[in-house]
Amino acid sequence: MNTATLATPRPRKPLSTWGFWGRLFVVPYLLVFLVFVLFPVSYGLWLARSPASYSKLFEDPIFFRTAINTVVFLVVAINIKMMIALYLSGFFLHTRWWIKVLAVLFILPWAVPSIPTILSVRFMLNPEWGVINSTYFRLTGLDGPNWLNDPTLALSLSMLMHIWKSLPFWTLILLAGRMAIPSEQYEAASVDGASNWQKFRYITWPSMKGLYLTSTLLSTIWTLGDFNSVYLLTGGGPADLTHVLATLGIRYLRLDQIELAMAAIVVSLPLVLPIVYFMMKRLSK
Question: pTM to 2 decimals?
C-alpha cells in the first residue's frame, strides 16, 4: 500500500512590531490608489461599456478628423521636439557663462504654469488687437491673418506651443545623458583627429540612443494626454477641426454625452498600452 507523506507546514512567524507598523503605513496609500485611481478608471470603463457608444462615436465625422489630428500631432511634434532637444543638449553642454544664463531663460517656459502662458499667446494671436497683427500692421500697413481661423495653421500653432512648453524638460534629460559620457572618450577621439560629426556618430549617439528611445516613448504617452496645448490655444476650433483625443472628451462632456466622452478616452488605450508595455520592458533591463 502506497502511503503519501504529507509535508509538515511551517509555523507562521509572529508579525513583528516593525512589520505591523510598516503594513499600517501602507494602508493610506492603498486607499488613495483605490479612491483616486482604481475607482475612476473602473467607473469610466463601465460608462463606456456599451457597444452603442462606440458605434455612435465612429459615426461622428469629428472623431475621424480628431484621430487624424492626433496622429499628426504625435508624429510631427514629438520628432521635432526630440531632435531639437538632442541638438540643444549638446549646445548647453558648453561652459561659457552666457550659455548658462541662456539656459536659465530657456527653462522658464517649462517652469511657469501652462494656463497663463498659453492664454497669453492666444491673446497675442488675436486678429483684431493682438500684438502680432498690430506689429505687422505698423510695419506693412496691411492686416495680419486670422491665425486661429485656419484649421491647419491652428493645429500647427498648437504643436508649436507643445514643443515650446515641453522642450526644456527633454533637453535637460538628454543633457544629463550627455554629461554621463566619460570625457576621456572625446579626448581620445580628438587625438585621433575625429570631427564633431564623427564624435557624435561613434561616441554620443551609441551612448544615448537607449535614453533617447525611452524619452521618446515617454513623451508619446504624455503628448497623447496633452490637453492644454490644444484646448487653451484653439478650443478645438474652428468648427471642432483641431481637436485631439485629449480634448475631444471635453467636447462631448459639454454636450452632456458622457458615454461618448468615456468612449473617446478608451479608444486611445490600444495605442497607449503597447507603448507602456514596451517602455516598461526597456526600463526593467
Answer: 0.83
